[in-house]
Design brief:
single chain, mainly beta, four-stranded antiparallel β-sheet, three-stranded antiparallel β-sheet, 2 helices, 7 strands
Length: 153
Amino acid sequence: MTILRTREPQVLPPAAASLEPFRLMRDFLRWDPLRDYDLGAPASAFMPSFDVKEGPDAYQFKADLPGILEADLEISLESNRLTVAGKRESEAVKEGERWHLAERSNGSFSRTFTLPEDVDSEKVVAELRNGVLTLMVPKRPEVRPKKISVSLG
C-alpha cells in the first residue's frame, strides 16, 4: 500500500511576513549578480544612502559616510539642485599581507537632489560628525505656512 503525503503549506516566518515592500525593491535594485565573480573589475563603487525629511522650518539630509574625511567631501547648491560628492580611498596592499576578504566598497560618489523652490540657499548648514553627514537646508520665512487664528465674534 502506498501512502501519499500532501505537502504542508509553507508559512513565512514573522520577520519575513512583515517586510516593507519598498525595502525589498531598494534591495533588489542594489543587487549585483556579478558581485561575487572577480572579472578584473574594481571593487563595487561606494554609494551612500541618504535619509531626507522635511520639518516645518527646514529639510534635513543625513548620510552615513564612514571613513570619509571632510577634505574628501564636496557639497554644492546651485539653483535648487543639491549635490553631495566625495570619495573613500581603498586601503593599500602592503607587502607580506594576504587579503582573505574585501567587502567594503570604496571610490567616488555623487548624489544630486532637486529641492523645492522654497529653500534659503544662503543658510545651508553641513556637519560631519562621527561619520554621519547632516545637512540642514532651511526654508525661506516668507513661504513657511502661517497659522491664522480665528476669533469668536
